[in-house]
Amino acid sequence: MWKCPPSRNNYLLNPGIKRFPFKIRLIMRQIFSFLMVALLCVCTACADDFTTTDVSSLPAKAQQYLKHFDSPVAYIEVDNEGVFGKTYEVRLKDGSEIDFDKKGEWKNVDTNLKPVPAAFVPKSIADYVKKNYPEAFVSKIDRESRGYDVELSNHMDLKFDANGNFLRFDD
């Protein structure tokens, strides 16, 4: 006569089935709980991202920097990065793009092969470019923690330190 196999969950009736030790089950439960909380936090942090055309949503410093451009704002993407604050990506109608941090300091200016306004380029970098590449101009500049990454209109990439001293050509 055929017998129904014992249920996998019935550990009391079938001693041949081994359970995970209590500590391992507890650790697995804690890891699962942590992952669920982390997923919830990520989902809620992304919920505050939005796009607008209202320049007043930018910090005051960023608004001052935008006055150096002739083109009007096409849109502004506001990204809430949780504990790191907000970042702002401004796209102008001429295609230029400026990224700002939560304090309104610029991080990246890309003008699509048009000259970057002088207010964004440190004087020592502007002097170096004018002296060594008189036919070129700065078309993109990134402010990094250790200095500046500059792209010229002739597609050369240059690296400068935080004081504006030339370091090397960038690949």
Return the structural class: alpha+beta
From the alpha-carbon coordinates, what is the Rg to the nearest angstrom? 28 Å
What is the makeup of the main sheet? 9 strands, antiparallel
Compute the number of helices.
3
Number of E strands: 9
The side-by-side strand order for the widest beta sheet comes to 1-2-3-4-5-6-7-8-9
Instruction: Describe the oligomeric state of these chains in a short phrase.
Output: single chain
Helix content: 10-25%
* First-last Cα distance: 77 Å
Note down, in words, how this protein is organized.
The chain has a nine-stranded antiparallel beta sheet with strand order 1-2-3-4-5-6-7-8-9, covered by helices on one side. The chain contains three helices and nine strands. Helices cover 25% and strands 29% of the residues.
